[in-house]
Amino acid sequence: MKPARPRLAVRAAILRDDRLLVVNAYPGQQSALWALPGGGVEPGQSLPENLLREVQEETGLAIAVGAVILVNEFHDPASGFHQVELIHRATLLGNADLVLDDPEGVVNRARWVTRAELAKLHHRPRLLARAVWGQHAAWYDPLEEIVR
Prior knowledge:
Elements: E1 7-16, E2 19-24, E3 38-40, H1 47-59, E4 63-76, E5 81-92, E6 109-113, H2 115-120, H3 128-133
Parallel strand pairs: 1-5
Antiparallel strand pairs: 1-2, 1-3, 2-6, 4-5
């Protein structure tokens, strides 16, 4: 099968009391794989705008988007699916509780985990703990219109 164009996605690494928010995004709890909240990028919106929307939709939480800390890439050779994810640090705004009311019905579970608990979970990307609890960050130059 000819590979499709890569899908661009954004994800939020949200820490609260040194615990990371992870979600399970497999309908009907078909998988034990945990990941960060986020999703596909819509054209015409900046990466942070997309991330704000995705986190709100999936968890009901409001966040402030920080720097990119990790670029993750994965694919499924059988289907041709290929995704590139930009993982951002994010900070909670207010003391809101999780509200799992994903309009697409994909996110069905969420939990706050310590670094030790994350290590025991089936999760992706593999470098997640190192990126989240590390001090490194990448620069981000905000979305601009093309100047001719």
